[in-house]
Every structure is written in structure tokens, then in C-alpha cells.
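Repro:
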Amino acid sequence: MSDEDAPPAGAGAGAENRPEDTTGQVVPEPNRPAAEARATGRGRSALAWAGVAGWGAWAALRLAGGDRIPGIGALGAPLLALTPYVAAAAPVPLAAALLLRRPLAAAAAAVIMVSLLVTVVPREIGDGQPAARGPAVRVLTANVFFSEAGAAELVGLVRRTRPDVLSLQELTTEGARRYERAGLTDLLPHKFLDTRSGAAGSGLYSRLPLRGLPPLAGMRMATPQAEFTLPGGRRVEVTAVHPTPPIASPAYDAWRHDIAALPSARAAAPRPAGRRTAAATPRPADGAPVRILAGDFNATLDHATLRALIGRGYADAADRTGNGLAPTWGPGGAGPPLTIDHVLFDRRGAATAYAVHDLAGSDHRAVFAAIRLP
């Protein structure tokens, strides 16, 4: 081969394999390390923003009151009960974004984390309480799980906590008889019951005489209401609460209806005929009874449906005392522990004591609250 036929200096087999354009010029190879770096960066960004999107969607659902939004409420209601767990894990997308060196995603994750924690953490701190100076009322509520809760355990709990009034849910006729044979009516001799089969029945027991009140209209589950008078003449209305759990569309509709149908904290005074007022809050009637709602609400403070009820003049005893995350359902393995049993009382009063108690045979824990009335 002559010198003229030899390849140019610096050209070799690699040059022979390089692509050429239509003019015969060699096209430079792409910068592979830079392309790989860009692809890695896009993957890291996608991962960081995926975490932000997931927790952000939950925060938006919570802040928007997702259990009351048409079309998604039936799905949102059971999900929102898990908000404390989602809030506890909210640092995860922030940490991921920081590790992936995505400052914008980290900033967004921090905002979402704060928005979730602000809705949950105050329940463990407690709320400021007014200096109530009225008489004291001791309230105990228990879901007795189709009346399978142990009779001796229930009566023993009543003996230890000494409630003025006891609210029982999922109370059957036979269950009431069994609890009474075990000595319940020796401690709380007055009762107003609406026992039914399965989980639908409820009842009230009291150490003071009870006057039964008319039933609330359209309630799927028993919701007995009664009034008693404390020494000194103060009247108290108590309602045993147990709406259906919002786990399917028909039950969800009933759950919303039943919670909305519960009475406001204060009875409204009659308005003069022919006059209108722009006030949204009913005027309390002089001498009106103080109202207490106690039972299994199948709702947590993350449900806008329950918060709307509380906004009608109530306070939650657990929230007021810094026990708002103490679980009342699920600790025995029935599901993730949730706080769905509540004692609500007139917000002008004060909760002076609060405790939850295990109850053998039930999937719920009993809730005790001592209330100082306004």
C-alpha cells in the first residue's frame, strides 16, 4: 500500500465507525456522561415531587373537608380518619427531597408537613378552657360491641369511675338484661333505652331520674335522648350517639345525616313574631338545659362533618384536655387505632378530667369525662 493510500494520522478503527453526515464530515459523538447526568437528575426530581404530590393531595383533602365534598366524600371519610398517621410520616418527603438535593421540592414538602402537623398536634396540647363554675357532671360512654363486652368488667368500670350518666352503644335487649343482672342498675338505677338487634341499639343509665325526650327524626341507629336535673336545679340533656360508619355510599349518607341532625349545644330562644335577625348562632334560652353528646361518632376530629357539629357550640373533652389522639377503637387489633368515641359538651364549660379504659369483649375503649358546666 502506498503512502497515499494510508489513513490520516490519528485516524483509526474508531474513526472508521463514527457516523458521517451527507457531506462526508465526521459527526462528534454525544456527551454520554452529561446525558446520563441529566437523566439521573430528572429521575431524582420525579421521585422528590412524587412524595410532595402524595402528601400534598392528602393535606388538600383534609383542609378542604374531603368527607363533605360531593362525589368523593364516601371515599374521603374513611381515609381522613388516618390523617394522624399521614401527618406523623410527613417528614418523609421533606427528608427525601433534601437527600435528593431538590430545594424547591423540599420547600413544598416543608409547607405541607407544617399544614398537616398544625391540624393534628394541638390535640396533644389541649385547648384553653373557660373558668366554669357550674355543677359537675361525670360522663361515661362505651360501645359494648353487640353487647359482647363483659358484664362484670362494665359494672366494675362504672363502680370505679362513678358516672352520673352512662351512654351505651350496640346495646341489645338481652345485653341490657345481662348488664343489669350483673349490678348495673344497682349503681345507675334510672334508664332510658332503645335496644335493638345487632349494632343498632343504644341506651342511657343514670344515677338521677331520667325524663325521656322525643327521638330525632330519620336516624338509622338508635339515638335516645333524656334529661335529668342536678341537685340545685340545673337541667342536663344527654344524647347517646352512634351513627353508622361511613364505609360505603349508603352508610356514608346516613352518617352525614345523623351527625348533622344532632342538636346544637344550646337551645334557641323563641324569636319574636315578625322580626328577623342576621345572627347565625341561636340565642341561648334562659333556663335552657345544658346538652351533652356521648358515644361512638364513627368520626375523628379530621372529619369536617364532626367539626361542623362541634362548631355549633360544643367542645370535645379529649381535645380540651390534650388527649385528642388517645385511641378509642382498634387497639385490640380490629384496625389502626383511631379516636372515634367522644364526649361533647357546651363549650362554655370545662373538662376537668378525661380517661380511656379498656373494656374486655369490646373493640372499643370506654371514655370517661368529668365536665364542669357553665
